[in-house]
């Protein structure tokens, strides 16, 4: 088992932030980046999360028979989450990383204003290239900062850029080094998530 065991390959629902904070606090930048070498979405506190979908999560060694019930106080001020931007469930031959409300996406965002398949992320293909995000013709839109993205057009994502998904859920796109820095600073994390 690695130093950080976040079950990245199996879990597509958003994660709690606290274990990532603990990992960042207890590691050097190099250790953290070696274990989490992909970007993350850090979601701003929201009451929009569907608590029924968030309640049951897989637990254990992948047998699928055990679930852990996780309690979220969504109604009292909302909740912040974190999701690794990583390929999990969709076609392994397609390099796109899909985000949407349906549970068969690589990143599941259980919020009603998010489309079943909302947007996709593309990893850089060569040195000097950046991550990109593409809106998939969603009803409620995807916004890069405050600019609505045109459907099926790639938009470059710099670390520290925020997205509005479905018009009302905000998420910060952070590369691992910037994520480590934010997680080690309660002030920075609070500024991003509250």
3D shape = globular
Main pleated-sheet profile? 6 strands, antiparallel
Which H/E pattern describes the elements?
Answer: HHEHEEEEEEEEEEEEHH
Could you tell me the mean pLDDT? Answer: 85
Kindly state the number of beta strands. Answer: 13
Radius of gyration: 16 Å
Count of helical stretches: 5
Instruction: Note the gap between the termini.
Output: 33 Å
Strand residues, percent: 15-25%
What structural class do you assign from the helix and strand content?
alpha+beta
Strand order of the largest sheet: 4-1-13-12-9-10
Q: Low-confidence spans: pLDDT under 50, at least 5 residues?
A: 56-73
Percentage of residues in helical conformation: 10-25%
What does this structure look like?
With 194 residues, the protein is α+β, with helices and mostly antiparallel strands. 19% of the residues lie in helices and 25% in strands. It is built from 5 helices and 13 strands. The N and C termini lie far apart (33 Å).
Quick summary:
By secondary structure, this protein is of the alpha+beta class. It is 19% helix and 25% strand.
Topology, element by element:
Elements: H1 18-25, H2 29-35, E1 40-43, H3 51-55, E2 56-58, E3 67-69, E4 82-84, E5 97-100, E6 107-108, E7 119-122, E8 131-135, E9 142-144, E10 147-148, E11 154-157, E12 161-165, E13 169-174, H4 176-183, H5 186-193
Parallel strand pairs: 5-6
Antiparallel strand pairs: 1-4, 1-13, 2-3, 5-7, 7-8, 8-11, 9-10, 9-12, 12-13
């Amino acid at each position: 088992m690695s130093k950080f065991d976040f079950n990245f390959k199996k879990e597509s629902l958003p994660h709690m932030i606290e274990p990532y904070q603990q990992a960042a606090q207890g590691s050097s930048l190099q250790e953290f980046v070696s274990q989490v070498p992909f970007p993350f979405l850090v979601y701003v506190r929201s009451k929009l999360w569907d608590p029924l979908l968030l309640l049951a999560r897989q637990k254990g060694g992948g047998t699928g028979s055990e679930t852990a019930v996780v309690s979220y106080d969504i109604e009292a001020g909302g909740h912040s989450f974190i999701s690794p931007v990583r390929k999990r469930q969709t076609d392994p031959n397609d390099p796109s990383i899909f985000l949407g409300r349906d549970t068969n996406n690589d990143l599941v965002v259980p919020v009603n204003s998010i489309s079943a398949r909302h947007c996709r992320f593309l990893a850089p293909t060569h040195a000097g290239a950046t991550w990109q995000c593409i809106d998939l013709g969603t009803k409620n839109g995807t916004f890069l900062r405050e600019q609505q993205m045109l459907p099926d057009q790639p938009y470059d994502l710099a670390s520290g850029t925020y997205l509005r998904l479905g018009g009302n859920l905000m998420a910060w796109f952070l590369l691992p080094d910037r994520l480590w820095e934010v997680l080690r600073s309660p002030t920075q994390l609070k500024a991003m998530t509250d």
